[in-house]
UniProtKB/TrEMBL annotation:
GO terms for molecular function: glutathione transferase activity; maleylacetoacetate isomerase activity. It comes from Gemmobacter aquaticus. InterPro entries: Glutathione-S-Trfase_C_sf, Glutathione_S-Trfase_N, Thioredoxin-like_sf. One of its GO terms (biological process) is L-phenylalanine catabolic process. Residues 1-84 form the GST N-terminal domain. Signal peptide: none annotated. This is Glutathione S-transferase. It holds the Pfam family GST_N_2.
Length: 290
């Protein structure tokens, strides 16, 4: 079964992040169509995903297209019941669905004041009262979900689920804007930043086109609070330990250097996403550790 998912800029498109996590985090293969936000590319790409009007949009194997990340989550869950998008226990599943639904339809003050930007982190954004109220509601929901489901690990309803997918962009906003939350919520945010699928998405987002001016803020910056990437860098030349790209198997055309060693890739994007966070990519790490 082959799906095709239309997404926007990885660094900025919060709904696209949700759509992609519904595939990558649950092991469901998908092909991507990308469009740069605030350009004609979005309308052009969406012509192939009618009647969807926003990103992400999904084309199913039989050609039918649907929009809205919540609809995508439910459709994937029905078509892949063993993937674990929703909890198996009915009561826990009900909690997870309620969480995703409220996130899908609410928290507008937080979204407007703190648009998703995975490329920076700020010391402070002076959140107004409306944003603080949204944060208080988030913390109340997250705490309630853990108590209602008996969850004791990193995630809200036991194992990582679609409910966590829907809160992933909110977790990044808390990280980007250094928003004030308690210890339990801060630990939940840290779990998102360390999640393997999120690290891959952010690594791609760091090199996925130029900065978008709409998202620029003049706040003082700090280091990204997630896991610190290994210190790789892009280098010139074709000399590398491997002759073919660890992702595609195609011949090496671009090279990075890590710990004095050189590794090759089939194009600039493969190399640069690896430079951004080498440990996010299991195939590269298998090569590096061999």
């Amino acid at each position: 079964m082959v799906y095709e998912l239309a997404i926007g800029d990885r660094a900025y498109s919060s709904w696209s992040l949700r759509g992609w996590l519904l595939f990558d985090a649950f092991g469901i293969p998908v092909k991507l169509k990308t469009a740069r936000l605030y350009t004609d590319e979005v309308a052009q790409v969406l012509q192939g995903f009618y009647p969807a009007r926003t990103l992400p949009a999904l084309r199913l194997a039989e050609g039918l297209a649907i929009g809205e990340s919540l609809a995508i989550a439910e459709e994937l869950a029905s078509r892949h019941p063993d993937a674990g998008l929703w909890p198996a226990d009915p009561d826990t599943r009900a909690v997870a669905r309620m969480l995703a639904s409220e996130m899908h339809a609410g928290f507008f003050a937080l979204r407007n004041h703190c648009p998703m930007n995975l490329r920076v982190s700020y010391q402070d954004c002076a959140p107004p009262a409306e944003v603080l109220a949204d944060l208080a509601r988030l913390e109340a929901l997250w705490s309630w979900a853990r108590k209602a489901t008996g969850a004791t690990g990193d995630w809200l309803c036991g194992a990582y689920s679609a409910a966590d997918v829907f809160f992933a962009p909110v977790a990044t906003r808390i990280a980007t804007y250094n928003l004030p939350v308690g210890a339990e919520a801060a630990a939940y945010v840290a779990a998102h930043l360390a999640h393997p699928s999120f690290r891959r998405w952010r690594a791609m987002g760091m090199v996925d086109g130029a900065d978008q001016e709409f998202y620029r803020r003049d706040y003082a910056r700090r280091e990204w609070p997630g896991p610190r990437p290994l210190a790789a860098k892009a280098v010139e030349g074709l000399q590398a330990e491997n002759a073919t790209c660890p992702y595609s198997g195609d011949p090496v055309t671009h090279v990075l250097e890590l710990a004095g060693r050189r590794f090759g890739f089939c194009n600039a994007f493969c190399r640069d996403k690896t430079v951004a966070d080498p440990e996010a990519w299991p195939k590269f790490m298998a090569l590096y550790q061999s």
